Amino acid sequence: MVDKVIPVADLRYAAAVPRIPLTALVPTGNVADTLGRPLRDLRISVTDRCNFRCSYCMPKEVFDKDYAFLPQSSLLSFEEITRTARLFVAHGVQKLRLTGGEPLLRKNLELLIGMLAELRTPEGKPLDLTLTTNGSVLAKKAQALKDAGLQRITVSLDALDDAMFRRMNDADFPVSDVLRGIEAAQRAGLGPIKVNMVVKRGTNDGEIVAMARHFKGTGIVLRFIEYMDVGATNGWCMDEVLPSAQVIARLREHFPLEAMDANTTGETAARWRYADGGGEIGVISSVTQAFCRDCNRARLSTEGKLFLCLFANQGHDLRGLLRGDYSDAQIAAAIGLIWQGRGDRYSELRGAMQADAGAGARRVEMHYIGG
Ligand code: SAM
Ligand code: SF4
Ligand code: SF4
What we know:
Elements: E1 14-16, E2 41-45, H1 78-90, E3 95-99, H2 109-117, E4 128-133, H3 138-148, E5 152-156, H4 162-169, H5 175-188, E6 194-199, H6 208-215, E7 221-226, H7 244-252, E8 257-259, E9 270-274, E10 280-284, E11 297-300, E12 305-307, E13 314-317, H8 318-322, H9 328-340, H10 346-354, H11 366-369
Parallel strand pairs: 1-13, 2-3, 2-11, 3-4, 4-5, 5-6, 6-7, 7-10
Antiparallel strand pairs: 8-9, 9-10, 11-12, 12-13
Helix pairs in contact: 1-2, 1-9, 2-3, 3-5
Bound molecules: S-adenosylmethionine and iron/sulfur cluster (2 copies).
One iron/sulfur cluster (SF4) binds at residues 50, 52-54, 57-58, 100-102, 134, 156, 366-367.
């Protein structure tokens, strides 16, 4: 099936209008794509705005005062997000992650969390409900998020050294505020907390050991992420990627580490533990060791476009259906059909596709689609 590409209200990324199948496609909780991968994880971007300007995500030169962020009317409402999430859950989604932009900048986010926390899987189980944040306003919000029904949280933190952190976020934001946010999340019981560090070789790789030392023994799982070629604005080059194998080698010079088994299929991080019982760390090797084979993640943009891969250049305009005269059954059927047609495995094909760079539609940006 080839979807027709038509212009939609916001033209920054191409979006196909999903087809409603003529024969009913009833969700079984086990929809699979062309590579046999189930749909288990839905990442929901609640805003495309952010108060940081991390160079790998929203470089200041591009995302300046003239940049046109989405207007309020484009955003999915909390009711629309919850309705969509419910339909994804019927297809097998067990995990919801709120992201952005900076999700804590979305007004009244606690209300949305409360609505999502009420969803149940077909077996009657609550969903794994989590959120990724830059931590800038977490100290103030952690308890309210927990009270609303958020279970756990992931905080992004690229350096402990204050000057380095301010350079990384390019908004002159102090590291102490994020550290206070992490402590508040711990106190509120938003655990197990994960801390994500994007490693850029030649920029913050000198912070790897200090970060490990800081979080060792705290129960917080620190994860090192390879700098990825997401979007088209961050000027990515392979020289700035520090392969996870080298991160582990550097850590091993200081701490004995043992490899662990994966928790779940489709997990992005390879897990390691300190041999002395100091806890766990992870490495996410999106560039050097693709994990597309088990990728069970779908992404819903702030304005309701469904993306099947972080590196997609085309979404599926679910908002058009949500705001049209369609029943839940029809929209669920459309979602099922889209997933059944999915064959994305960008990271596995990255090498071959680099040669193609620049051809075709623009790739989606990370702040728009979430991590
Ligand atoms: N603003 C929130 C935050 O930073 O946690 C949530 C959205 S952010 C886009 C989600 C995650 O994507 C963050 O952990 C961020 O570090 C990561 N990220 C953004 N651009 C990246 C890139 N080019 N390579 C690897 N990770 C990236
Ligand atoms: Fe903002 Fe997160 Fe992107 Fe940094 S990574 S610019 S904090 S959205
Ligand atoms: Fe999933 Fe696409 Fe990333 Fe592969 S490249 S793991 S398909 S999001």
